[in-house]
């Protein structure tokens, strides 16, 4: 996305993707005027954007079809933690988009707020850039893995809310990463889903042009289905909602 020179071209690119819901992080919109401009460009359906004080932050949830009723939105931490409750094809769903800060104190602050957002009675999709590694198989590094306080808290919060780490559920022992530099490779971009979403086999495909972008595709089947592809994970998965 960063290689695309203009906002208009980026919006056009996103519109061509075959996904119904897109969750973006690190949007780098500086002012609310920029937000309004993007909302006008995204004329296919709802677009919900949150920006904060840091010029590098910004999260957004974009819908490509009108078959969604937005119940409420909450900017829990502007530019970092965005919540949308919606009704999609008759199913109530909470979507939470995260772009966690690199500082430990801010990570802990976000996770403590997140805990209370998960105490609901309907299905949840929690996704984004968490800037957290929770186990040794989330990284490739010469430095020995240490489970940090924020790692333990993320695991605890998701376990208490009965959320599954989607990639780890599909690949229990695979070492994989979504971000890398010259020394370390880490899996910090994640999907967590409610336990009562059942995973079905689905053909997967690979592409390599996206960074800092997570897609969610919901297909209307006999019940509601969700096809999820994680940022640089390249794994399509079909989920079925039973509630």
UniProtKB/TrEMBL annotation:
The keyword Transit peptide does not apply. Keywords: DNA damage, DNA repair, Hydrolase, Magnesium, Manganese, Membrane, Metal-binding, Transmembrane, Transmembrane helix. It is an enzyme of class 3 (hydrolase). One of its GO terms (molecular function) is metal ion binding. Its EC number is 3.1.11.2. It catalyses: Exonucleolytic cleavage in the 3'- to 5'-direction to yield nucleoside 5'-phosphates. It holds the Pfam family Exo_endo_phos. InterPro entries: AP_endonuc_1, Endo/exonu/phosph_ase_sf, Endo/exonuclease/phosphatase. The keyword Magnesium applies. The chain crosses the membrane at residues 197-218. One of its GO terms (biological process) is base-excision repair. Residues 12-199 form the Endonuclease/exonuclease/phosphatase domain. Its cofactor is Mg(2+); Mn(2+). Mg(2+) binds at residues 26, 129, 131. PANTHER family: AP ENDONUCLEASE (PTHR22748), DNA-(APURINIC OR APYRIMIDINIC SITE) ENDONUCLEASE 2 (PTHR22748:SF4). This is exodeoxyribonuclease III.
